[in-house]
Design a protein that fits this description.
- Two copies of one chain form a homodimer.
- Helix content of chain A is 55%, strand content 12%.
- Chain A has 342 residues and is of the alpha/beta class.
- Chain A folds into two domains: 37 residues, no CATH class; 233 residues, 3-Layer(aba) Sandwich (Rossmann fold).
- The first copy, chain A, has a seven-stranded parallel beta sheet, with helices on both faces.
- The longest helix of chain A is centred in the last third of the chain and has 29 residues.
- Chains A and B meet through helix 3, helix 7, helix 8, helix 13 and helix 14 of A and helix 3, helix 7, helix 8, helix 13 and helix 14 of B.
Chain lengths: 342, 342
């Protein structure tokens, strides 16, 4: 285990791969490993990339990785596929990535699939980020297929979240878009050379102006002067971050320098007024709550006799006991076993 | 409160509406109300309807409701919109529904939007189902916009889950479809009069054959004889349920009788070997775990001094404490306060 820890901190690929497997599968020693690596974390820039299938996310992630590599920065990619194992857990875009990035020692790519447990995936990706952070990667790109809760989980672990759209995917997805927009720090319209890109860009801008809290605040702050904030730097100055809408043609590298600039500007924005610190604080609080919840239920279920639980379920099913009362009784059972806990 | 309870059980519309508001907003007395109504639940047939935006789900739900009404059955509709309040929580399709079903005393329609809390929405919809069940509605249709976790939650509360697709929504959504397919008891290709319906039907069938556990089992059981199970009755006989793929043109009522027949067949299938009972048992177990988790964390956070938590977060942020160790310390703090709890 000590060898593994040292290996990760030194950035040895084999140790990193093994450590990722240990934490992903929650093998023995995973917590010890994470605890040992934890003091070495907190240095990486973590970028989340999400969006619906068909938007070309994977190609965009590859293009970003190549561009950061060209600047001599080291890049780790975590590709999270929240679709069920039913589909075989195929990670889209892996072939493209492999072709372009294989063999580069400054890049590390890891695919993760769910095992039917969305909460577990959030934990696993958080732990994987820590391993790669401790291993010294300067940038960690976390890519996920857009499927609701997973985007929210990305927003919880990343410092900057990119939401990727593309023209021609149907214009009836307003409701879904609205939910995703809220977590976006930067909106990317990829495949911007395709027909309909203009209308995708303008509809995203319209939605932002209508609904985004930063847009509303900004409109108030500027007395309606800045209705169209095209320049993210202006938003930084204003101490609001209104997500910019950028165009890319990732397959040809189009728009990538501008995207990198926007990412850097968002990073600079986070450095203002300790925003990055308070974001991290929030993330830690969420993690503690998640972990406490899991630990508490595990402990309670270990104390409650299995027959008691089965009997209660049977009584609920017979409608002679209601679920709320059942929970009260289970909590009381814990108390009666430990009479001082009231 | 007693008046409210009696009103709901008698099926009085005003009492039902008020009770739904009480449970949705977790107002004072919500738990008492639910406990009082609980013995009167368990009679309704609960049907979940999910799918991506643009598939015509709402129109399908309206068409189903009208058809059940024509058979003198009472119908409640819960339209759950898991998109964030950011979008204003507009419930799609409400206008269509209102036009066709308004004024019918045998129909009750309730829209629910999230308040940024997906877990809370699952709870709220479960509670709303109970109120409507106790009020005596024979059918409860729970409609949700497809957004990942929400479909899974539907599958957890419904007895029969319909997944709605439509032609022409883009063919690059395989990954998402695969995840949703798994929870489908019946697949509906709506807008089946549009171009591309045949290919949507055949691609769904191909996915089912490739991946669905029931299909695999069935293929083994029948030595590959039944590759295309077109007739759900055959699946009932075989004691496997392979989701049928049905075509509808909901806007004109096309395919609705066949869909109702498939729903009835699935219901009959659930009645075999106590499958309905064990489904309900599972649902209760999930509910108890959810409720216990919430109660336990609430109790722990009430005990732990706020400063202790804040101090821990600060130490984690400074990397002098790791999150796992923090949780162990918090649990130990609870124990030290109640020394007998070890």
């Amino acid at each position: 285990m000590n060898e593994l820890i040292t290996g990760v901190i030194k950035g040895e690929r084999r140790a990193i791969a093994r450590a990722l497997t240990v934490v992903e599968n929650e093998r023995d020693g995973a917590e010890m490993l994470l605890a040992a690596l934890f003091p070495h974390t907190g240095r990486a820039q973590i970028i989340g990339i999400t969006g619906a299938p068909g938007t070309g996310k994977s190609t965009l992630v590859s293009a970003l990785a190549k561009a950061y590599r060209a600047q001599q920065q080291t890049v780790a990619i975590i590709a999270v596929d929240p679709t069920s194992p039913f589909s075989g857990g195929a990670i889209m875009g892996d072939r493209i990535r492999m072709r372009d990035l294989a063999g580069d020692p400054g890049v590390f790519i890891r695919s993760m699939a769910t095992r039917g447990n969305l909460g577990g995936l959030a934990r696993a990706s958080r732990d994987a980020i820590r391993v790669l952070d401790a291993a010294g990667f300067e940038l960690i790109l976390v890519e996920t297929v857009g499927a609701g809760q997973s985007e929210v989980d990305i927003a919880r672990t990343a410092q900057t979240t990119l939401v990727v759209e593309a023209p021609g995917l149907g214009d009836d997805v307003q409701a879904i878009k609205a939910g995703i927009l809220e977590i976006a720090d930067i909106l990317v319209v990829n495949k911007a050379d395709k027909p309909g890109a203009d209308s995708t860009v303008s509809s995203l801008k319209a939605m932002l102006e209508l609904g985004h809290p930063a847009a509303r605040e900004q409109m108030v702050a500027h007395h309606g002067r800045i209705l169209h904030v095209q320049n993210p730097a202006a938003a930084v100055e204003a101490r609001f971050w209104l997500p910019p809408v950028l165009r890319t043609v990732a397959s040809e590298g189009g728009g990538i320098p501008e995207l990198m600039q926007a990412i850097a500007q968002h990073r600079a924005h986070l450095a203002l007024d300790g925003a990055l610190q308070s974001l991290e604080k929030q993330q830690i609080e969420i993690e503690l709550h998640d972990r406490l919840r899991a630990a508490l239920i595990a402990r309670l279920l270990a104390i409650i006799p299995q027959e008691m639980l089965a009997d209660m379920i049977a009584r609920i099913q017979a409608r002679t006991l209601d679920p709320h009362a059942a929970v009260q009784q289970l909590l009381a059972a814990q108390v009666s076993q430990y009479p001082d806990l009231r």
